[in-house]
Design goal:
Elements (H helix, E strand, L loop, with lengths): L2 H25 L7 H8 L6 E2 L11 H8 L4 E5 L8 E4 L6 E3 L5 E3 L4 E2 L3 E4 L3 E2 L5 E2 L5 H12 L3 E5 L20 E3 L4 E3 L6
Parallel strand pairs: 1-2, 1-7, 7-10, 10-11
Antiparallel strand pairs: 2-3, 3-6, 4-5, 8-9, 11-12
Length: 193
């Protein structure tokens, strides 16, 4: 077994375990799960940001995105193709949407812009700001490209139950600057990694 094959197997196991924890957390969620996210975003009013349209058992950032949309542009990711960075199209609360890849809704008409803040969905996270995604590498490529242009704040948003330890990581995995859950905010912007 090659090192890459072994890492992929570790990631598959970690994802399976995290999906199970997320499913339970989602089933037991309470109203107001985006409260901490709204508080964090309030400190960045008017800064262009991108959230996401939740699918399956993902925690929903929609309430916080709607609040932020009153102050500046808010977008959602639009997949351009396999192994390509995401692009972000302006989203408006109650705006018309169409079906996008993987079951996520996207704006009916694309109006692309580069966000300076990304609210990032994830499968698992750790207390060092690492994230395990779905495996397509979309957010890693996107964050790398955006951060090459200018500072870009990456905020992971998840249920606290999605926290894991010893996540299998690769050198291309982009770290998060913050992780927000329904229980707490982990801020890595002021610490050395």
């Amino acid at each position: 077994m090659t090192a890459k094959t072994a890492l992929n197997a570790e990631k598959a196991t970690a994802r399976k375990e995290a999906f199970a924890r997320r499913k339970v957390a989602h089933a037991n969620r309470r109203p107001g799960v985006a409260g901490h996210l709204s508080e964090v975003l309030a400190g960045y009013r008017g800064v262009p940001l991108a959230g996401y349209m939740p699918i399956r058992t993902e925690i929903t950032p929609l309430a916080a995105m709607a609040e932020a949309a009153a102050y500046g542009p808010v977008g959602v990711p639009v997949i351009q193709g396999e192994a390509m960075p995401l692009r972000f199209s302006r989203w408006e609360p109650d705006g018309p949407l169409r079906d996008g890849p993987f079951g996520a809704q996207v704006p009916l008409v694309d109006d692309f812009f580069d966000p300076e803040i990304l609210i990032v969905p994830l499968v698992a996270f750790d207390t060092q700001g690492n994230r395990l995604g779905y495996g397509g590498g979309f957010y890693d490529r996107t964050l790398q490209a955006l951060r090459a242009k200018r500072p870009t704040l990456a905020i992971g948003f998840a249920y606290a139950a999605q926290q894991g330890a010893d996540l299998p990581l690769e050198p291309t995995d982009q770290p998060l600057d913050m992780i927000v859950t329904e229980a707490e905010v982990l801020d890595f912007t002021r610490s050395d990694r």
